[in-house]
Amino acid sequence: MPKSNYLPAAEYLRRTIEQASRYQQRLERISRKMRLRPRREARVFALFGIKGHCSHIPLSDITARIEALEIFSLRVADHLASEVKSDTPIYHGTFMDDVGLTTDREARFRLRRFRGKVDRAIRKLGLNAVVVIEVQAITNYPGRGLGYFLMLHCHAILWGSISDRKRRAAIKKLNNSRAWTNHFGLKPIKLRRLPNNIDQAQFIACYLMKLPACAKRLTKNRFGKFCLRPVETGYRDHLAFRIAEGLSHYSIYDGIFGVCDGKFIRKAWKADLQEWNRVRSESEPPMRRFSTSCLWKGVRRRHNNRGHYRPFQIG
Fold it and tell me: What is the pTM assigned to this prediction?
């Protein structure tokens, strides 16, 4: 959960958009420092939504991500206000599992497998949900010259009529099962009930859609257990660029999915984003299709972090 949970949704939305814009500027600065060939640089910029854009919308397109963020927060609020009873419990959920764990060097994203696992868990809880997949860099682990961990995990807004006792029992059963494991000993699934407040739900919707502009450090709390804390000073440029490289292999629509009634939120969000992209393409024709894998192969041939970076394995 963000620390600034006292902020109104509109203010948090503004701050999240500003953070996304700074992240986009950072990617542009890193790209220019690499002094790529003009054609290669233009394609990288298109993948990041910096100058020009692709005919599809990659998950790395920051301009599209900002628009998607605004649409998503509105669609979540509209659906919860019109389709969900005011006394229905609403939750913020977090899902973490070892299937989403890789390193910046090994670079194996198993997004679809992880998405299926989260979908099944939510159905076992008997809840509706709209879920956003996020990549989190862990800057101090594994260390010892082995690179940094990248962690695919999910945040979700969930709702449905289930007693607190049944919900806690179901989550405990999932967390104790062999199906859900966490390398750091953290609880794989956490749910926190939200006030039945549309503004709070919109706030969480903005939090779900934030970009990987910040990283985490693995530390131990006073009880000797691992926990993840924000890195206040940011993280290295080559790691930020590496994450954006991984995201560019996916469509923006791969990053969000709905479970049960949550599918209606995703469907409305997708339709609005497609219409926005149609208007964008009319005013600025997209770049002709190219192979993302071949582009990154060319980039990494010259800028390969001392030969440590392997091609992304996408699943």
Answer: 0.92
